[in-house]
């Protein structure tokens, strides 16, 4: 397959890039700036986010949006950039896979209370959860794009080990065998590239948790 990772210099993006290359896919990094640390086995496209157009993406079977924004002024880019990519890919066969957030997962079977709505949700993560939630609310209305939105577990462990296995959930926060909601960035990358290969969740959100 031909796979592009947008935001491939970030912590999650770099793991997605490595996972894709490891499996033998023709993989490219799409970045705003070349930091010199990108795997030399990957192709490289340097482009500002909102300048990415279909000529940049048309050759790829799958485009993975691994962008993350943390500052007050950049937080809205979670939804403006995702809308831009969706508009670019509207009506096309290329698939768009999105590194999502856990805050928009529901904690009840009635699908009324999201994780970010619970009293113990950390204040520090609320701005990013709200903006990522808005991005998800918008992408799930798009039936003109072959999108998939993947949410991690509540405890998303940046330096966790790669076990190569995970448990799949849906819109409801799922717990592992220890009763915990946790997954490593590395295992999240495994799940995302599995989805790139198998296309089991087109135009839907799914979630993953460690076993």
TrEMBL record:
<dbReference type="InterPro" id="IPR036291">
    <property type="entry name" value="NAD(P)-bd_dom_sf"/>
</dbReference>
<feature type="domain" description="NAD(P)-binding">
    <location>
        <begin position="7"/>
        <end position="195"/>
    </location>
</feature>
<dbReference type="InterPro" id="IPR051606">
    <property type="entry name" value="Polyketide_Oxido-like"/>
</dbReference>
<protein>
    <submittedName>
        <fullName>NADH-flavin reductase</fullName>
    </submittedName>
</protein>
<dbReference type="Pfam" id="PF13460">
    <property type="entry name" value="NAD_binding_10"/>
</dbReference>
<dbReference type="InterPro" id="IPR016040">
    <property type="entry name" value="NAD(P)-bd_dom"/>
</dbReference>
């Amino acid at each position: 397959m031909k796979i592009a990772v947008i935001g491939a210099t970030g912590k999650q993006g770099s793991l997605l890039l490595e996972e894709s290359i490891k499996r033998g896919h023709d993989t490219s990094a799409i970045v705003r700036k070349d930091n010199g640390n990108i795997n030399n086995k990957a192709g490289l496209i340097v482009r500002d986010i909102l300048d990415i157009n279909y000529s940049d993406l048309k050759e790829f079977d799958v485009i993975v949006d691994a962008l993350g924004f943390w500052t007050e002024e950049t937080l809205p880019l979670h939804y403006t950039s995702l809308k831009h990519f969706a508009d670019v890919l509207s009506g096309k066969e290329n698939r768009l896979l999105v590194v999502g957030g856990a805050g928009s997962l529901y904690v009840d079977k009635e699908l009324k209370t999201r994780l970010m709505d619970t009293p113990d949700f950390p204040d520090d993560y609320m701005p990013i959860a709200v903006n990522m939630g808005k991005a998800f609310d918008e992408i799930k209305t798009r039936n003109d794009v072959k999108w998939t939105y993947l949410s991690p577990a509540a405890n998303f462990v940046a330096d966790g080990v790669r076990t190569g296995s995970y448990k799949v959930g849906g819109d409801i926060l799922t717990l592992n065998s220890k009763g915990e909601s946790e997954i490593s960035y590395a295992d999240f990358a495994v799940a995302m590239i599995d989805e790139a290969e198998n296309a089991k969740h087109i135009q839907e959100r799914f979630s993953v948790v460690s076993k």
